[in-house]
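Duplicate of earlier report; Copper-containing nitrite reductase input re-posted below.
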Amino acid sequence: MGLYSIVHYADMILALLLPVFGLTAAAAVGPRSVVPRGSSAARTAVVAFGTTAILRLLCTLALGWFGWVFLASRLPAAGGCAVVCVVLLAGWVRPVPRASAPTGAHEVPGWRSPVAAVWATTAVAFITSYAQLVSPDLAGIVTVTAVVTLIAEVLWWWRLRAPGRRGTVVRVVAVAAAIGIGISVAAQASTLPPELAVTGHSGHQPGSAGSPGSPGSLGAVDVAALTGTRPDPSAVVHHFTLTAQPATIPLSSGQQVSAWTFNGTIPGPELRVTQGDLVEVTLHNELPDAGVTVHWHGVDVPNAMDGVAGVTQDAVPPGGTFVYRFVAAQAGTYWYHSHQQSSEQVRRGLYGAFIVTPRDQPQPDAGTVQPVDDAILRHRWGSEEGVTTLGLDAGLQARQVDPGRPVRLRLINAETDPATFTLTGTTVRVAAIDGTDIHQPADLPGTRILLGGGSRADLIFTMPTTPVVLRAGTVGIVYSPDGRADTHTVAVPAQFDPATYGTLTATTVPTGGAPDRHYTLRIDERLRFYDGRFVVGYTLNDALYPDTPVLQVTAGDLVDLTIINRSGLDHPMHLHGHHALVLQRDGRPTTGSPWWVDTLNVAPGQTYRIRFRADNPGIWMEHCHNLEHAADGMTLHLAYTGVTTTFHTGGITANQPE
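Output:
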C-alpha cells in the first residue's frame, strides 16, 4: 500500500470518528439549575431555550456544510484539522454531575449545554453528509440539516417536560425513527429515472455548429449511420459466428462454473485476422432472459460497431441476431466482451481474444522455426476472493517449446482489478502496450509488468535451453524444452515503467503546443445511495452517471484530458474509439517511446495528462474498467458535435450497458 493510500484511509477513519467526538461532547453536559414552573426564571429559561435553538440551527447548518465539503473533497489535511477542533471543543464540555429535577420544575441548561447540543446535532449532520443521503447541492443539505435540527429541538423541549430515563428512551426512539425514514427516503430518491435517453444530455444535442464529417457545418448524424468507410473490394473477408449461450464449464481446480459463454467455450474463441482484413461477426443470443452485445475493446471501430447497449445499438434480445462489420485497420492485441450488464456478463464468461497481425509481417518459410504466438487471458471467477485462471487453468501450466524458437506472449487482463505479470528465466522485451508497438524496446533481464483491468501487453523473447516462467499471482505457465512444469527461484525483476521505456520518435499527435480542448476529471470516493443501492461511489467531478460531465468535441480537435485520482483504489480509465498518447504522469513528461493507451490505470494519488485526436465521430463511452465501479455510475461520454442517437438506456428499456 502506497503512502497516498495510507493517508487516504487514515483520513476516512478520522472522518468516521468525527461524529463520535461530537457525540462524546454531547454527552458531557454542563451544570444545571432547577426553577419552579410558571416563575420568571422559567420564562427566562424559555427565552434562553429559543435563543440557543436558533444559534444551534445556524451552527449546525454551517458545520454540516463544512463537513459535506471537506468529506466530498477528500483532502487528507482537512480531516485531521477538523478532528483537532472537535477535540478542543469537547474539552470545554466537561462532565459534571446533574441536578435532579423535582416534579413541577424546569431543568434550565447551563452555558455548556448549548455547545453540547450543537455537537450532538452536528454529529448527525456529519453522518448524513458522509453517507450522502441527499443530493450534493446546498438546498438538499440545508433541508436535511434543518429537519434533523428541528427534531433535536423538539426532543430537547421534551426533555424539559420529561426528564430522566423516560425522556432518554423517547429521544433514542425518535432519532432512530428519523434516521430510518431518512435512509428510506434517500434510497428512493436516488433511484435513476426509468428511462435515460443519451440524447437528453445537452452535450449530445444536434443542430450546433460542427458535424462529424465537416467541422463548422450544420446538421445531425445518428450513430447508427456511422458504419465507417467503404472497405477495399479486394480485402480478405473473415466471417465469424459468436453464439452467447449458458454452459457448465469445469476448471482445472475441479470447480464447476455456471458460465455464460461464446460458442460454449471459456474464453470465447480466439478471433485472429490480418491487418486490413474485413471482419464480419454474427452474434446470436441464446441466453435466457438476458440481452447481449459485443464490444471490441481497444479496436477503434466505427461508432455503430462499438457494441454498447443503449448508446450505439440495442442489446440483442434472446433469439436475436446482430452483425458487426468493420475493417481491422490496427495491428495488435485486443479482446472482445459483452457491454450489456458488463459487470455481470464479463465475470460470467462473455469475453475472448481478438488478434490482428501486421500486414507486412514476414511469413516464415517451411524450413524455418515457427514462432509461438500465445494470447493469454487472465480472469477471475466469482467474487474478489474467487478462482483466478489463465484461460481455464487455475494452477501452473506446462508448455513445451524448443530452444531458439521465437515466442510472443499477448497478455490480456480480462479482469477488473490490476494484475501483475512476472516473467523470469530469459531476456525479454515489452514489444507493445494496448495494441501499439513500443519504439526500440530494450532487452530486460525478466520483467514485472502491471496491467490495469482491460489492458494488454506483448512480451517477446527467444526460447532458451532452460525454463521460462510466467506468473500472474497464483497462476502461471512454464515454457520449457521438455514440457515439464519445473520452476526456478530467481530475484524478483524490476517493475516495468512504460513512461521511460524505449526511445522517443515522431507521433501522429503533436506532443507540444496547446490543445483545442482541455478537460479535467477528478476521481473521488464517497459513500452514497445510487439507484436505490448503498454503494461506495467513485465520482467523476463530484457526480455519478447520468450527472457526469460530457466531453464535447468537434471532429479534428486536439483534446487533452487530465485525470486526477483522489480515491483510494486504482481506476483503469477506458476511452472507447480512440487511442490516447500519455504526455505526463504526476506532472513529469514521459521520456520513453510514445506511450499509447486505450485503457490507462490511474493509481491512488496519481495524475495523468493524455492527448488524442478527435478523428472517429460518434458518441463514445469513457469509463472505469473496474466494471463494478462503472455499474455504480463511474461513466461519462465523449460526444462529437452534431452526433445524436435514438437508443435509450434505463430500467424500462432492454439496454443496461453496465
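The radius of gyration is 30 Å.

Merging into the original ticket.
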